[in-house]
Amino acid sequence: MSPWLAVLRTEGRLLRGDPVPAVVLIAMPVVLMALLSTALGATLAAEGHPGAPGSAQTVPGMACVFAFFGVGIVGFAVFREHGWRTWPRLRAAGAEGGGLVAGKLAVPALLLVGQHVVLFGIGVLFLDLVVEGSWAAIALTAAVYGAMVLLAGLAAVAVLSTVQQVNAVTNLGAMVAGGLGGGFVPVDALPEWVQPIAPISPVYWAMEAYNDVVLDGGGVGDVLGPVGVLVGFALVFGVVALRGLRGDAPKRTWG
């Protein structure tokens, strides 16, 4: 068995034994979608979208905000090996470089795919979500945003040295990026001083793309602008990861 596939199988077994990452990515946003969709329908009407269901905001918004916790899932997958003293064994067994990274990213990537499928499916089936535009554009946006999150996770591993730092960056990053970027409420409904700085959040660009499709009936061509910005974020995180990732770098866990 190839080293990366062995790492993937191990990560899958760990997920089956501890489903908390799936709960964070899927169950928590589903609860918030159910609680907030009615109220946010009025917000969308006030922002110029009368008749749009609140799920047009809550489904993509909660998907973006909670997908950001994938940064922590990637980080914990690496720091856990250091805590168990198994990181040197993986490297000695040949799971080095790209193979090790691929194995560690595969399960978080599948979780992000499953999250978007479940959230949008629940939105359509139970929360009156109607996607006016192209589902291909939705899929493109979700794929690029998910790739950016995974690379942000690798960047966090590269620059952080303790699992507490990973936890803090993930939690704070999800709330700040989601709040600034319009993941909880539309950007136009945020305080005036927040709106000019909203574009510094990748969530802002993901929501721009989702709104173009869900509310305005856009297609793939309409989302290429915001998706291109997300690609830029991904490239920045990728460069940080490439420059900073070292297999022999010490990492401290809870113990």
Describe this structure in words.
It is built from ten helices and no strands. The radius of gyration is 19 Å and the shape is elongated. α3 runs antiparallel to α6, α3 runs antiparallel to α8 and α3 packs antiparallel against α9. The protein has one domain. The chain is mainly alpha-helical. The model has no long low-confidence stretch (mean pLDDT 91).
Fill in the keyword field for this structure.
255 residues; 10 helices; mainly alpha
What are the SSEs and their pairings?
Layout: H1 3-17, H2 20-46, H3 55-67, H4 70-83, H5 87-92, H6 98-126, H7 135-159, H8 163-181, H9 202-214, H10 220-244
Helix pairs in contact: 1-6, 2-3, 2-6, 3-6, 3-8, 3-9, 4-6, 4-7, 4-8, 6-7, 7-9, 7-10, 8-9, 9-10
Describe the structure in brief.
Helix content is 73%, strand content 0%.
Principal-axes shape call:
elongated
Percentage of residues assigned to helices: over 70%
How big a fraction of the residues is strand? under 5%
Supply Rg: 19 Å
pLDDT averaged over residues: 91
Counted up, domains total 1
Termini gap: 32 Å
Order of helices and strands: HHHHHHHHHH
- Which structural class do you get from the secondary structure elements? mainly alpha
Number of strands: 0
Q: How many H/I helices?
A: 10
